[in-house]
Amino acid sequence: MIRSKxxxxxxxxxxxxxxxxxxxxxxxxxxGLILAxxxxxxxxxxxxxxxxxxxxxxxxxLVLDTHLDTPMNLVKPGWSILDRHSVEDGSQxxxxxxxxxxxxxxxxxxxxxxxxxxPEATAASLAVAQERIRAIRALxxxxxxxxxxxxxASDAAPIAAAGKRVVFISMENAYxxxxxxxxxxxxxxxxxxxxxxxxxxxxxxxxxxxxxAGPRWHGLSPAGRRMVAQANQLGMVIDASHASDEVFDxxxxxxxxxxxxxxxxxxxxxxxxxxxxxERLRRLxxxxxxxxxxxxxxxxxxxxxxxxxxxxxxxxRTEFGAPADRTPxxxxxxxxxLRALNRVHPATQADFEDYILHLLHILAVAGPRHVGIGADWxxxxxxxxxxxxxxxxxITERLLAEGYSETDLAAIWSGNAxxxxxxxxxxxxxxxxxxxx
Length: 437
Prior knowledge:
Blueprint: H1 18-31, H2 33-36, H3 52-60, E1 64-68, H4 71-74, H5 95-101, E2 105-111, H6 119-142, E3 147-149, H7 156-161, E4 165-172, H8 181-189, E5 192-196, H9 222-234, E6 237-239, H10 245-254, E7 260-264, H11 278-286, E8 290-293, H12 297-300, H13 307-320, H14 328-344, H15 352-366, E9 371-373, H16 393-401, H17 406-430
Parallel strand pairs: 1-2, 2-4, 3-4, 4-5, 5-6, 7-8, 8-9
Helix pairs in contact: 3-16, 8-9, 13-14
């Protein structure tokens, strides 16, 4: 039941003109700034600890996040998930901080940056994706006492009950699978259970929310529709984060199972193309879908750069060129240089209250059975006062203070996303012929 305690905050932060918002959007898309800026700046304030009562309740819940970009760290030579790292070294998720923050696991993203729309570039991207899914699977095979691979919705609770962290696998940007239905099947066989079609730029599958060139397909391409159908038939959840509004509308219409926005925010709070408006939020909820709320500061509110930072960013973009023209090695080098830039010229940061503003608004519009948490950890997410997963109990504390129940929290922290996966599984099972008697 929706509470009346939190009225709609329509356009609370809409202060820029349409032209300036478009210019800012183009700059972010071309520079890849959003990918890493939020979580890799200089040290942020330590989160306020919660009460023992809140901590105990948080520990009772199955706490999952639907967008962990930590596989980018897993593939680094010498980097171990078992060591405690820090925000200062560009890390927000590791085993010690998962334990401290009560994060039972989530969906670990197979992400490979998009290059040119050529067979050679997609083949290189596929190699990156294959490396990352191997690294994700290795969490469970190399550390079986601490991580468990989850292949269906019902796997999550037993893994967590055994004291392990849950490893679901998702894919952010299906660009490396373009034209390769055999690889869609192969990644499913390795554990892929959630898939998005597009990232910052349009590709051969779908339009992006942030491509400065505007729409190419006006939604899904024919190849994109075929991939969605294949993913449905296999039992994957379809993720519309990063996709254009037209893609979202078509997925709602065409997908036989509810879709997810694995890491998105409220456009009626901050008018950014990566966010979703209230009208679509209501349609998402009416269709049974779920939105997982993002904590990437550039999507929460306007974050103007200092002149010095703007100049340094412009020089970095000029040196590396557009994201679509970079090789995987150049994309990795760009992120490392951006992290170094952030240390010298820190980005303006959103804070915990900015995040809560989006979360409470979305809860009021869509309802607690259609909302969850997908903070974009290690992919740019994190705000002052909640800059790594150790601070997650603060969300539980705040939602309790706003009047949400433990049942609501159980749905928000994992139940809603798991329901979608179960529905995808059930649909795929319904397509299989009944066994002969």
